[in-house]
Amino acid sequence: MIVALIGNPNCGKSSLFNHLTGLRQKIGNFPGVTVDKKVGFCKVSDGSDIQIIDLPGTYSLYPNSLDEQVVLEVLANQNHPDFPDLAVIVADSSNLKRNLLLFEQVNDLGIPTVLALNMLDVANEIGITINTPKLEKLLGIPVVEVNAREGIGLEGLKLTIFRALENKSIHENLDLITLSLKENVGKIKERFNLKTDYTALQFLSQTDKLGFLKPKDVLFLKELATEMNFEADEFHTKEVIDRYKDIGETLSQVIEVEDEKHSSLTLSQKIDNVLIHKFWGYVIFLGILFLIFQSVFTLANYPMDLIDAGIADLNNLLKSILPESKITDLLTDGLIAGVGGVLIFIPQIAFLFAFISILEESGYMARVVVLMDKIIRRFGMSGKSVVPLISSMACAVPAIMSARTIGNWKDRLITIMVTPLMSCSARLPIYTILIALVVPDDKLFGLFGYQGLVLMGLYLLGFFSALIGGWFLKKFLKTNEQSFFVMELPTYKKPRWKQVGFTILEKVKTFVFEAGKVIVAISIILWVLASYGPGEGFSNVEENVTKLHPELNGKELEHKISAEKLKNSYAGHFGKFIEPAIKPLGYDWKIGIALITSFAAREVFVGTVSTIYSIGADDADDATIKARLRREVNPDTGEQVFSVATSYSLLIFYVFAMMCMSTIAVVYRETKSWKWPIIQLVYMSALAYFSAFAVYWLLK
Fold first, then answer.
1. What CA–CA distance (Å, rounded) separates 492 from 366?
2. Contact (CB, 8 A) for 293 and 452
3. Which of 212-226, 262-276, 303-317, 639-653 has the lowest mean pLDDT?
4. What pTM was computed for the model?
């Protein structure tokens, strides 16, 4: 049995899905569509499992985006593998009239329904009281009260679902079929073996949006529409007007409104007067950003130092108790050095996602979207582009996928093309390690840390670059389509700390294991490439160094031999090959190797430099990542490799560089063409190279 959760955006549908299914969930794609679907399993009253599908949020069956189109294609196609046996319509009780439009449309498709009234606490707060038993009697279908956020009413909902699957009921709506339509609707029902007149009308009025139709069926429907002078837009408009009139008559019998309470400003509205103010709103948002980035450095610094020191102590311990061998070197200089370069950043990732989760849980993130909408429209992008841009602070991959909500193809493409310019969490390890090397741990006015200010500046640079990029692309990709952005602001709520904890755990786990798999593989490959080399140049290194530098002995001789072996290894030869291209940016061949490996994932950069610079780092003082990078000296110039000029050049390079195979893959999947990811890779790489070049020579 399949039960679909259906509702408007921000009605609490996904929260209800999470409570019903718990950890028994999986993410996939709807057949033939690159839109995610969430599927889970739930035990009902008789102990049996039912499959729950969380369909994308939509206001009606008339879609304006890919996500909304999926809802139409699933519900209008009785042969679809996800076609539900029962629909649970989740409704926001504070705006029931708008939510019941979708409810009536789903009923008219012939799908048995249950109405779940959510957000009753919000409705009560603004003076709205709903007589649920009377509403159930008027509609003729089960109506149940739930609190999706707190998980209240779940057992009652499960029992209702169980009973509704045994005794399926459908609300009888007003008849939309006129006499002039009746005959032709019958033809459509007969040809496609449809159960209801309303489904036939959807086939007729939304032919182009039903991707499962065969070309000959599309031709039949279009010819029929022409023959009967059927105007789809006119039908849609009349349907919505008639339905709202019918809904209004029903609700007038079950809803009581406390005028005084309803007309007065709610607490959320009073707070909004400040938080989305045209001046103070931006000041407060920048202050919150500043607080986040300061915390990423100050609060996370102590656990980071402990992890860094712990990795160093583990390496030294293993080197002291294990016999000298290639296996020991692989374990310490390869595997542990590489993985340690990721583990050190767990505290910062945790703090970043903790703040993001709190902002989302409290309802403030929705206000950020409204604030940003006012800015990005001036740069030619859609208001709906705000969500992907904000989301990409966590990761560009799901952010690009979220651009599906943008109905206008050109606006969607522009959003996809500039979203990777926003700094994601994968860049955070690179930013923090380089900032820690060159930015003093001092405070401005004794309060504001310089390191946090620089980190915030890098994130803002990425944001404004995305805006400027969008403005340029809009000039080349001209469109006459108008894009509208409508968003219902949720009320402010106290964060669910359990949910915040789950979010942190999930994001850290993803960061460690997803990046960890790549880093382990690359660390092992790098160690092999750095420990072996071609020909006599590598095998005779020890003999040649001893002859050329007879004055060296002990540790100095060992370090010199290690350095020469690395230079003559396979990795060294590869690094030397690409060095001429990156030398103008201030990078040596070792940094070049890290640049190439970080194309797999940006996080790999730190793991790579940790592995590469650990070769020959036998002193305990050089055991930590920061110490190894600080002591690295360019043998040709005698200057520190990670100087101020080089470090800032690297920071700017990674603000703009694509450097993420997963992002390239998802852009290809979303655009269905290699043209756009290649253009994106080229323009971002060129921007990164020339910007890093300019910064290096300005600071040198």
1. 10
2. yes
3. 262-276
4. 0.68
Q: How many C-beta atoms surround the C-beta of residue 398 within 10 A?
A: 13
**Cα distance between residue 607 and residue 487, in whole Å:** 41
152 burial via Cβ count (<10 Å: 0-12, 13-18, 19+): middle
Q: What is the pLDDT of residue 134?
A: 93
Average pLDDT of the residues in 510-527: 72
State the chain's mean pLDDT as an integer. 81
Q: Which of 203, 171, 186, 196 is nearest to 102 (CA)?
A: 171
Q: What per-residue confidence (pLDDT) applies to 620? A: 43
Distance CA 104, CA 85 (A): 17
Tokens of 637: 């110039």
Distance CA 500, CA 497 (A): 5
Task: Tell me the domain boundaries of the chain.
Answer: 2-166, 179-258, 280-425+440-476, 513-699
Class of domain 2-166: alpha beta
Ramachandran category for residue 686: left, alpha or beta (phi over 0 → left; psi -120 to 50 → alpha) = alpha
Question: Can you give the pLDDT at residue 359?
Answer: 83
Structure tokens belonging to residue 294: 């300061």
Per 3-state DSSP, the chain is made up of helix, strand and coil in percentages (nearest 5) of: 65, 10, 25
Distance separating alpha carbons of residues 425 and 601, to the nearest angstrom: 11
Q: Find the helix or strand (DSSP H, E) in which 27 lies.
A: strand 25-29
Gap between the Cα atoms of 43 and 163, Å rounded: 13
- Residue 30 has a pLDDT of 39
| 559 confidence band (pLDDT: 50, 70, 90) | low
Report phi then psi at 130, rounded to 5.
-115, 130
Look-up of token digits 């206008």: 408
What are the angstrom distances between the C-alpha of 43 and each of 39, 48, 91, 114, 217?
Answer: 14, 5, 23, 17, 40
Q: What are the contacts of 689-692 at 24+ separation with CB within 8 A?
A: 689/585, 689/653, 691/652, 691/653, 691/655, 691/656, 692/585, 692/649, 692/650, 692/652, 692/653
Question: 433 burial class (0-12, 13-18, 19+ CB within 10 angstroms)?
Answer: buried
DSSP string, 672-699: TSSHHHHHHHHHHHHHHHHHHHHHHHHH
- CB count within 10 Å of CB 312 equals 22
Q: What pLDDT, on a 0 to 100 scale, did the predictor assign at position 332?
A: 77
> Cα–Cα distance between 148 and 118 in angstroms, integer?
7
Location of structure tokens 């990005």: 376
Placement of tokens 């909902």 in the chain: 157
Distance CA 433, CA 345 (A): 9
Distance, in Å, from the CA atom of 671 to the CA atom of 286, rounded to the nearest integer, reads: 34
Structure confidence at residue 484 as a pLDDT band (50, 70, 90): low
Query: What pLDDT is recorded for position 616?
Result: 47
Judge whether 597 and 604 are in contact, CB under 8 Å: yes
